[in-house]
Design goal:
heterodimer, A: Archaeosine Trna-guanine Transglycosylase, Chain: A, domain 4, about 0% helix, about 30% strand, B: 4-stranded parallel β-sheet, 14 strands, globular, SAF domain-containing protein (chain A), SAF (chain A), SAF_UxaA/GarD (chain A), UxaA_altronate/galactarate_dh (chain A)
Amino acid sequence: MTDRKFLLLNDTDNILVCCQAASVGELVKLTNVEFILESNIDLGHKVARNNINKGQHIIRYGVSIGSATVDITKGSHVHLHNMKSDYIPSHTRQSKAGE
Amino acid sequence: MKGFLRADGRKGIRNSVVVVYLVECAHHVAKTIVSKLDNDDVQLIGFPGCYPNDYSLQMMEKLCTHPNVGGVLLVSLGCEGFNREKLSKTIIESGRPIETLVIQQCGGTKSTIELGIEKSTSLLTNISNVERIEIFTSDLVIGTICGGSDGTSGISANPAVGACFDLLLNADATCIFEETGELIGCEQIMANRAESPKLGQELIACVEKAERYYTKMGYGSFAPGNAEGGLTTQEEKSMGAYAKSGSSNINGIIKPGEIPHKKGLFLMDVVPDGEPMFGFPNISDNAEIVEMIASGALMILFTTGRGSVVGSAISPVIKVCANPDTYERLSEDMDVNAGEIIKGLKTVNEIGDIIFESVLKVASGEKSKSEELGHKEFILTYKKFDITGSPQKIESIGPSCLS
């Protein structure tokens, strides 16, 4: 089952990618996973598919794209406020660094 | 498809005169010649520095003898450090018509501009009768780059370009992907696609070099707009960028300006060798585009999520937009709407087919959006690679000669 707004890229991923802007409180339903969004999510951003512990890898495309810097609960925005690179630090202009 | 046959046997899809300033001091004169002629086939390229540099000389030699270039006008101030004589010799040896104007000997700005317009016009006439020849998909050399990536790039435009690369490689074309700094995190997966284990090791070493270099520079290849578009880390951006390379075997590694010695899929190692010396490897997207063109790319497939608008001098750029919202905002600049994948209207393979068709159309002479809009960006800066020397020498360096 696929949600019209969120995409699972690989079965082993612990995040979903947003394909259409979604609002806080919306219900997300995919096979074996169901949660309420904890914040607004923009196109291209990620939400946690399940609870992710601090230090655990964030998996997208079936590979690690960094590590959680805090415990992340299912359905919350996964971005620079709660994950980091395991290679090179990312720099931003602080806008939309995460909610 | 009809192309232009060059003396070295390579075939171009465009037939341009390049007006080349050899130092920033000659930029205005060269630019004015080009803008006064206002002809799509007269294009401005140049190098701003006054200090000599092997890399930029070799790049310029390769660019001025590119299959899309028919003739060259060099514009020199007269006292700059650029090795004008060597560049000139290489162009003459390639069989192309060349004119050189030295501002200090031509009477100054106004006189040189007038002379430049005259010379460029006669170069255009001179190259108008170059032999036209049938070109096939197997003659194509296509590069790919992403710019202004966001969270959609890696699931729409980039894998669609990958699908197009697979089609091109199946048809015996040559494809180039690049920016090892944007492959950090996918080196192991990439190595599994190397045509030999030794090349696999070289691919990993190439990415490790990029990681060391960027770490010293203090920034990865990651811009604030990437984060606003949903990307978080270098490795996330990398995985998305990596998808542009498709799923075919990787056949070699080339350095900027090195012409692939056989057909197939090549990674361009754009990160300088040794300790960081002249700054960031490529200061903006067009620097990478120019390097792929110097290695013979006849066309560039440019994927964007946030919405880049650039094109390039010498080779046409086709823009593939990853993000449906961006496409709505900037459709006048986009050739292909890969955002339809995000909306569930088309599959990655269907967009791959559409990109492939666009490649054939643009190779046949149809203008891409950026060409129509007059985008002819160009940038060339200083770099250093361990092995530099004659153009002949640069062709035999690097792991591409492993096989």
